[in-house]
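Tutorial, part two.
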Amino acid sequence: MIDVYITKGDIITARWYEADNSSLAGVQMKTGLREIVVRGVLRHIHADHPTRHTACRLFVEADDGLWCERCGCYERMVDPKHVIDAEKA
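Running the prediction step on this input gives:
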């Protein structure tokens, strides 16, 4: 079931966690987590097939991303399963 369609130009918010550091001190392994939140304009959608894709990546305009020559802004790659909010621009 599809709740929302996202297209280029929409403003999306994505959130996920990355492992920050690990420690083997004590009996159990401990891992620190860092929350990553990206909010910005969706610039590109890349998939391996137009209708029956098995892999998809979203590229969101973000200040801490990599420079994109095609659209002239900084972008960050986001996994679609990390998108938590979308709104039409």
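The CA atoms of residues 13 and 39 lie 4 Å apart. In part three we will examine how such features are distributed along the chain.
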